[in-house]
């Protein structure tokens, strides 16, 4: 039996839903530094297409989705939905099922934190120095304007595990490796 999906190459994009697509676009372009590429929508369906294809109420409408590129990593696709039941729920915490965060590699963590603070972004706590196999890495969490958890991470001299690892984690520092 073959392990993994045949022909898989890597992550193409990460998609997520935002409450205000204009505000999210401004944040991703002006604060994070993404390039805005294109938009699609609106999308609605007759019948059960939305339920079959996207696992949402069939009456849900996608007001718009937008696509972004950020440096050497995966692309982003953001959606603004009009849910049929009107409930968009709460932003999941890391400890919730389906909890998640986006992590961005930066060359200098301290300069990046100052940039976030100058842009009135809520930074959580203080930078953390990783231990054990991740020694050499520093990180900190921050929140988007709509409360989505994000992280800055930096390991300019690598991580401890890399010295003996036959396979290394992918890094935007060296995207071809």
Major sheet details = 4 strands, mixed
Radius of gyration: 19 Å
Structural class: alpha/beta
Globally, the shape reads: globular
Mean pLDDT: 94
Strand residue percentage: 25-35%
How many DSSP E strands? 8
Low-confidence stretches: none
Distance between the termini: 28 Å
Order of helices and strands, N to C? EHEHEEEHEEE
Number of helices: 3
With strands numbered from the N-terminus, the spatial order across the biggest sheet is: 1-4-3-2
Q: What's the helical proportion of residues?
A: 10-25%
Q: What would your notes on this structure say?
A:
The strands form two sheets. A four-stranded mixed β-sheet has the order 1-4-3-2. A four-stranded mixed β-sheet has the order 5-8-7-6, covered by helices on one side. It contains three helices and eight strands. Strand 7 and strand 8 form a beta hairpin. The model has no long low-confidence stretch (mean pLDDT 94). It is globular and about 55 Å long. With 177 residues, it is α/β, with parallel strands linked by helices.
Structure keywords:
3 helices, four-stranded mixed beta sheet, single chain, alpha/beta, globular
What's this, in brief?
The protein is an alpha/beta fold.
